[in-house]
Amino acid sequence: MTTSVRGDQLARLLGRWHALPGRRRSPDYAALAAAVRGLLSDGRLALGVRLPAERELAEALGVSRTTVSAAYRNLRETGHLTSRRGAGSWTTLPHGHRVATSGLWTPDDDLDMIDLGVAASAAPVELVPAARAAADELPRYLGSAGYHPTGLPELRAAVAEAYSARGVPTSAEQILVTSGTQQALDLVLRLSVPVGAPVLVETPTYPNALAALAARRARISTHGIDIEAGWDGEMLLGALRQTRPRMTYVIPEFHNPTGHLMPASLRERLVATAHATGTELIVDESFVDLPLDGEPMPPPVAVFDRHSRVTSIGGMSKAYWGGLRIGWVRASAPVVQRLAAIRVGVDMASPVLEQLVAVQLLRLSAEIVAARRAQLRFRRDALIAELRDRLPEWRFVTPTGGVTLWAELDGPISSALSRAAEDVGVRLAPGPRFGLDGTLERFLRLPFTLPADDLVEAVRRIASVRHDLDHATGPSWRTPAVIA
Ligand SMILES: Cc1ncc(COP(=O)(O)O)c(C=O)c1O
Q: Which GO terms describe its molecular function (predicted)?
């Protein structure tokens, strides 16, 4: 199904397109086309979206229709737009590009790119031995069809045991194994959020959660997370009371992207308020295994749940490996059955072999997670040292866990900087990707999941293009690398 964007919506997304850094003498139509490409390349405008009619966009932007016509023509020439008489114009992927896991458009031949768009690590060394051991276990399952819509019993039991060990007594029947945390979120939304229902999310937040909510056509309102202080408890609970959302999505452990850890007291009040306002809480625990500085962890949000208001989701992508595609939902046993019924309409079940690999890895969780934490601590510290050295005017709080650092830049330059960085071989996910309305231009997420040398090199390159942005002469609104 093609979705469309209205003129006023696109105008809002485009923001100050005519006055962005680096633009000097390029004509309006070229700047407009470049700004639309920018939205496409950083994922704020999706593929297959119908753009407004030329006259409508011209009105919304306060420019002539000729300017919009020329911009659309330019976008068609670069492969970003396809038009058909009578049917309109919709966004397309130019030849030679693909959509990356981050949702960003990337050239096919970019092996040398340092990719800071993805906040996930390479596999641990234990993965291949675990896969071999899993293959040895496989014959036990080969005599049946292999479809287990709720997950393999032994994996469900292992995940339930880990919850119980964290202080939330859980039985295997309360666990649904999914294809990553992303599918867990999608299934829970399908069950709990009718089309158009009000939901509350943090801003900034995880972009693919916003994408899942957009697919439900949820009516989204936001709670702002401060770069230094994190959640403002009064504001968050106040927002719940005022908007009485059907559902609230939070990432309380080492929040992506800010890295904040929600204190125990707010967890307890959040659950109580959600109960009072009739709101379901979806708690994304993607980073719960990754405290980096030995701090004591607050209890899981579900500990405070006495009225079945909390659905927890999590998975193995961050502490183990994203390529496994193993995630889960923790809910009541009847809800798990309802989710499984929805799930069979999507992908039937998770692969048996991968689930067996997951069981093997969870048996080694103590070693694997300890090594991952040590690796991330080292990489985080290397990133921070280089940032302090090369970009001392950027402001951030050292994250005490997780995999991301949220930096406040020295100006509203995140998208321009990301486009410039792409030209020197660094892929960034600019701040506005993590919000709804393009307002996070002063911020940039920097994951520390790559090797320290790559992070150091990336910061050097970013610092050099940051300098160039201020000193650009002539028409330097460069075409983003993604469109070649
Ligand atoms: C907060 C959050 N939720 C969900 C996901 C998706 O994880 P998975 O790979 O398990 O689907 C991510 C991955 O970056 C994430 O950061």
A: transaminase activity
